Amino acid sequence: RLSSGARLMDADLVIRAKSGDREAFGQLAALSIGRLDAAARLIIRDRERARDVVQETLVRAWRSLPSLRDPERFDGWVRQLLVRACVDELRRMRRHVVEIELTDLEMPVGTAKSRLHRARATLRAALDADERADRPTLEGRLA
Fold first, then answer.
1. 106 close to 70: Cβ distance less than 8 angstroms
2. Measuring CA to CA, how many Å separate 31 from each of 40, 76, 80?
3. What pLDDT digit, counting tens, does each position of 23-57 carry?
4. What pTM, to 2 d.p., does this model score?
5. What are the distances in angstroms from CA 102 to CA 2, 98, 105, 124?
6. Alpha helices per DSSP H over the chain
């Protein structure tokens, strides 16, 4: 638990960061990064991906900071952003799973070729879906 003095200091940093003070936001990030990283590793279960999620969370926090109403609720707010970023990452990870059964090495060449063709088509569709999801939409630019 943070003492009331530490909360006031954090609230002051949040207020300064909301007004565009990058140094204040950097201090907030430094105070939060350990907790965010630990939580992300528990959810994602991959150290490197968890670091990416924490970085994405901090970018989202910087961009969304003006929408934070109560500066004293920064910790909970940024944790919610982390959870959302983790869910997004888990969805991306799940989309990239493509299973190809290779148990029957005695199968006819035509069967192997048709399975390979279907696997490539599945992979191509997954990559196209990711590309479409990463493109900004007109709604995204207006929001």
1. no
2. 16, 13, 16
3. 999 999 999 999 999 999 999 999 999 999 999 99
4. 0.63
5. 55, 13, 7, 20
6. 4-18, 22-44, 47-64, 74-95, 109-134, 138-142
